[in-house]
Design brief:
alpha/beta, Isopropylmalate Dehydrogenase, 2 domains, 10-stranded mixed beta sheet, 14 strands, binds 3-isopropylmalic acid, binds magnesium ion
Amino acid sequence: MNKKKLVLVPGDGIGVEVTEAAVDVLKAMFDDAGYELETETYLIGGASLDAFDTPIKDDVIAACKSADAVLLGAVGGPKWDNLPAHKRPEQALLKLRKELGLYNNLRPVKVYPSLTSASTLREEVVSGVDLLVVRELTGGLYFGKPKEVTPHPESDGERAVDTMLYHTFEIERIVRAAFDAAGKRRKKLTSVDKANILATSQLWRKTVERIAPEYPDIEVDHMLGDNCAMQLVRNPKQFDVIVTENMFGDILSDEAAMLTGSIGMLPSASLGDGTAMYEPVHGSAPDIAGQLIANPLATISSVAMMLRFSLDLPEMADKLENAVEEVLAEGYRCADLTQGAQKIVGTKEMAELIKSKVISAKSVAST
Ligand code: IPM
Ligand code: MG
């Protein structure tokens, strides 16, 4: 029998309710198929700081490493904003990424036909957008050392430094992952860098050029990061797969998210060589937390990615993705997409709607 073990780290704010909703859907699918789903839940981020005075405990990392997959909600909130750097809730996320070796962050940006009017951009610009941001996730400015703020008596102030560091092997593995992803899509790869200025980008571009001949069926081009930011709002349909370093990927993926109308729609997968982690791209949204109005679709779509990449259940993944599209086509929306929407539903109702699409008629009748 198919049996899978998940570690859940819902984190803070709406992370808690969207994770619960998505797991509820997944459990229903597993029950329906006669599979077993074991889950363990741990505190991370602000919740862990409150309980244990640390953003993440070592036993949580160990549990994640031994699971089939990890589902994360979101971390952070105003309550923990003024803590010193090593005690910020975001450290939980960075530590998980680093310790699990999750260098390959996939952020698909797909504009659903029923949501083309939800974007702040014109319909003809966004309709049909279907791109994938492949973000390097364990290197660059986020992790390079030195990274510190020190006194600077000479200027009567302080001095701060972050280090942007990349090794060839780090670039090679993410670029290969992006070529592979492009091979399964429309076979176009845009590598984004700032090679006119940054040494790391010069190494990045050289590495892409060296690897490209191994993938003769993929069309590759290079684009500077500032131009990419512009092209994403000018003509996003030119993109298939974008591959870029950590910080550029952070910024460009938020920008790309808005093509879909709401960051509440965007799933992500963070892959490495061991257990992978899945999380919605949106944050903890403390302003609406606990009200059960948050959109769970980004997390539900992240679970679909989990089914595909970690649980080896691609048919279930397709089913779940189709259900999201159908429910949206029927006009159901959460509070993040109210513009022009006919039927506004809460977090739990949205999960129930998805469930009703993914489980067989037989099991609906028996529950
Ligand atoms: C993201 C987030 C994180 C990041 C934060 C919460 C640390 O913005 O996943 O994009 O910067 O990577
Ligand atoms: Mg971000």
